Each structure stands twice: as C-alpha cells, then as structure tokens.
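Minutes, project check-in
Item: structure for the 162-residue chain
Input as provided by the requester:
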Amino acid sequence: MEDLIGIFVGIIVLLLFTVVPLFIWYKIGKHFEDKHFVDIIEREKRMIDLAVTPSDTIDPNRRVEAVGMVTGHVVIGSDPFKRYIASLVNLIGGRISVFEAPLDRARRESMLRMKEQALRLKADEVVNFRMETMSICGGKSDQPLGIVEVVVYGTAVRYARS
C-alpha cells in the first residue's frame, strides 16, 4: 500500500513540476507566436507591391534617381516548451519541427523590416537582396538555445519619375 502511495505521489509531483509548467509555456508561447504571425501577415499584405530580388540588375530602360542600402535584422527565441521538445527529438534524431515556426517568423519579420526601411526611402524596388541566418548558442557545451538571428540586406532603388 505504501508503494502505491509513493507511486501516486511521484506521479503528482511529475505532473506539477514538469507537465503543468510545460503546458503553461506551450500556451503562452503559442499565444505570442500566433499574435506575431497575424501582425506579419497584415504587414505583408500592405507591402506586397514592393519587389525584392536577389538579382543585381535594374531596369535598363529607366533612369535611377536614388539608391541606398536597406537592412532588416531580428533575433527570435523559442519558448521553454519548444526547447524541451527539441531536446527530446535531438536524443533520437530527426527533424526538429518545433523550431521551424520561429525561423519562419524571423525570416519574414526581417524581410518586412527591410521593406519598411525601403518604403521610407520611397524606393520602387530592392535589388541584390541577401539573407543570412545564424543560430545563437550558449553555455559551455555550445548547445543551441533555440534562438535564431536573421539579417537581410539589399539596395533600395528609386527610379526617376517621367
């Protein structure tokens, strides 16, 4: 009987100190991630007309009035739930899909920041676009923390109005 009580207490402790906090972190992380995606989608709709290309060629039939370098930079971290799941998947190997949403958010947010800067310059397009992605590690073992940094840059071009 005492063994059953010990097992029951162990299960309760496991739930209280592991499962419940993970569930709370999951809900909090999901809320902020969903909120960020809604904001990203809305901003992408507003900036859909600004062309961004990796090509360094500009329209040869138009006279360039102004150019300037534009950048976008963001660092996005993952919540404790994602890091916990990723560490479990890492033990057995395989695709760590819980980090795909933060990476997608980081790429899209950095692109939007670059486009916003180009629009402030009244650019018609961004050429020679480049993107760099870095994983931020920490600790003595240099283990990934689930934090990603994305830097994008390009040349904003404004054509002379005829």
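Outcome recorded: Residues 2-159 form a domain with the Translation Initiation Factor IF3 fold (CATH 3.30.110.70).
No further action items on this chain.
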